[in-house]
Amino acid sequence: MKPVPLNYRHLHYFWVVAQEGSITRAAERLGVAVQTISAQLNLLEQALGRALLTTKERRMVPTEAGKVVLGYADQIFQLGEQLQEALRACDRTGTLRLAVGVSDALPKLIAGRLLAAVYRLPQPVRLACYEGKFDDLLAELALHRLDVVLTDRPAAGGNRRVFNHPIGEFDIALFATHVLAERASSNFPVSLKGMPLLLPTPGNALRGRIERWLEERGLAIEVVGEFEDSALLYTFGRAGLGLFPAPLALAEEIASQFGAGPVGELVGVREQYFAVSTERRIRHPAVEALRSAAADSRGGDRPE
Predict the structure, then answer these.
(1) pTM, rounded to two decimals
(2) Which of 26, 224, 235, 287 reaches 20 to 30 Å from 278, CA-CA?
(3) Are 229 and 198 a contacting pair, CB within 8 Å?
(4) How distant, in Å, are the alpha carbons of 82, 118, 149, 198, 199 from that of 128?
(5) Does pLDDT of 175 surpass 80?
(6) Cβ-count burial of 63 within 10 angstroms (0-12 exposed, 13-18 middle, 19+ buried)?
(7) Nearest-angstrom CA–CA distance, 274 and 152
(8) Where in the chain is the domain with CATH 1.10.10.10?
(9) What is the mean pLDDT of residues 215-223?
(10) CA 56 to CA 64: how far, in whole Å?
(11) Is the dihedral of CA 236, 240, 243, 247 positive or negative?
């Protein structure tokens, strides 16, 4: 008996429902009626002879057969989205488009240094940068609205297919404007006692490392500001409102842009940065340039 040809529209509806966990949300995302999706899911299950979805804790989840189908659907439709992206990326002049998400916790000076590598490609590049929270950017990456996310922490795999590409580790120092630096640089780090400090918000990996460093040395400081956005943290530091942490490698840029210099290194405190990308069969040339720049910054091997 000749097998029934697979209806890819039905398969696409199943794929979206499995992602959203709800026919209603899938209908909203696709802009079609709930009844349409329900009917076409039924037709897909009849054609395959298997139940593909079941309800668990008020959420629609794939059955065992549905998980198998979902694995193939992921590859089919992600590759289709990548094809559309590639066509959109190349205009008549051959310009490549690179959409980058930059985590608000990542120093923008680090991001700028790294992203400059894409302009060394032989073809012209149009760069689109979006700043946001870590989880929001990963969601956009999963939907292929971003090509890569630059962040200060690795992304957990979970249901997402992602690769974490280490950009490098950087030594951290405390910076301050001239007046504060004079007070804090003498007999560092004992001089930090009672000094005003600007820090990343609680939950930030660097915040925890700095607090442990201070605690180990018995240093009581006054936190006068907490910031999710590193650029805003540096801006308050430029106003002389407190000492602030930053990669020591950025000393020249911070002096030029924020009028602040290093007071002292937080020995043993380092921050690692990552470029997070999805698993792709077709690699974006600008993402490859980004990854190569990351390898160069570490003095390591080229990415595979």
Answers:
(1) 0.62
(2) 26
(3) no
(4) 17, 12, 12, 30, 29
(5) yes
(6) middle
(7) 6
(8) 8-87
(9) 89
(10) 13
(11) positive
Cβ-contact 183, 191 below 8 angstroms: yes
Instruction: Return d(Cα 134, Cα 149) in angstroms, integer.
Output: 9
Sheet order of strands, 261-278 included: 125-132, 96-103, 148-151, 261-278, 162-176, 244-247
Q: For 50-77, how does the pLDDT look when each residue is reduced to its tens digit (9 = 90+)?
A: 899 998 888 899 999 999 998 888 878 8
CATH 3.40.190.290 in the chain is located at: 93-304
Contact 53, 73 (CB under 8 A): no
Over the range 124-153, which residues count as b (16 or more CB within 10 Å of their CB) and which as e? ebeeeeebbebeebbebbbebebbbbbbbb
- Kindly report, residue by residue over 250-285, the tens digit of the pLDDT: 899 999 999 999 999 999 999 888 888 876 544 677
So what's the pLDDT on residue 118? 84
CA gap 168, 152 in Å, rounded? 10
The pLDDT of residue 197 is 95
Q: Which fold has domain 8-87?
A: Arc Repressor Mutant, subunit A (1.10.10)
CATH number, domain 93-304: 3.40.190.290
